[in-house]
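Lab notebook page, bench 4
Experiment: in silico fold of construct C2
Operator: M.H.
Input chain length: 351 residues
Purpose: comparison with the prior construct
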Amino acid sequence: MSTCVVPKLMLYSLFRNILFLLPAELSHDLGLKGLQWLHRCGLMGLVRYQIPALPTTVFGLPFANPVGLAAGLDKNADYIDALGALGFGFVEVGTVTPKPQPGNARPRLFRLKAERALINRMGFNNKGVDHLVEQLKRRRYRGIVGVNIGKNLATKVEEAAQDYLVCLRKVYPYADYIVVNLSSPNTPGLRSLQFGAQLEALLIVLQQEQTLLSQQHQRQVPLLLKIAPDLSDEEVAGIAVTVQKAGIAGVIATNTTLSRAGVEQSVHAGEAGGLSGAPLARASTQVLAKLTAALAGSMPVIGVGGIMDGQHAVGKSMAGAALVQVYSGFIYRGPVLIRDAVRALQNQSNG
């Protein structure tokens, strides 16, 4: 192992171990603030790895590499420049809602260290879409940025389309792609919108608005749907039919799971919320494979869920993912995961 790699691994391990002594949400906030401080002081070289070049074009967009950061880490785009400087091929911010909201009561984020997992029931806590737009206006990161949009807790499920339309209109001039999040388990009733006539009606309304916005702003911003891993084969097939009918650009598979398979013995297994990290990898990749098979190449899919190393990233690619995203693996392993995932995908593409 090279001499430059060992200190970075040791530094992140020390940094993570100190943060892991604190409550999970506090350490999350302090970690992001620390990263931002390093960026502003010109010290990102202490934690950033040399990322191989692996340019990839998906949705008509040029990605520097196919490994991105999933939504949820930077809900308000407050840290987008620092996160982007780590070498991600793209960064997805949000989930953002029309109005600011505090989210669910604390504690609402739990580490399952032995299982390399997290459980969260954050509840779309964010500063509102107007704040996020201002952050996007000021960003210096020139890579691809996606914006993940949701509905406010107070908005009835039957009226959800209006919240998604508000967010879509406001972020459209500043996003490279936009994700309709219907799969969070932490907003009551939200996942019901993933199915049948409700899904079709919502996506058609949003896609029609996207067409109008593309004409108004003279730029095409792809619209994607993010789905849950807790789906039957029939539900996955139904979603595939609906997204093709609606004409959206792609799908992200998957969000967190309600299952506790693989973490049954954890002290936090009984906590409500979505499970992410290593225990999600298999189920998430299975849904991804079923979805890409059902779509039969009609649109790209982004694979996310349980990527903890380079081979997990390759597994998503082999299941049909055009791009991949990391979240919990990034928390546990740090920036080295970006390099390892890009290297593994590069080796795969080289045969």
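Observations: The longest strand covers residues 90-96. Residues 5-349 form a domain with the TIM Barrel fold (CATH 3.20.20.70).
Next step: discuss at group meeting.
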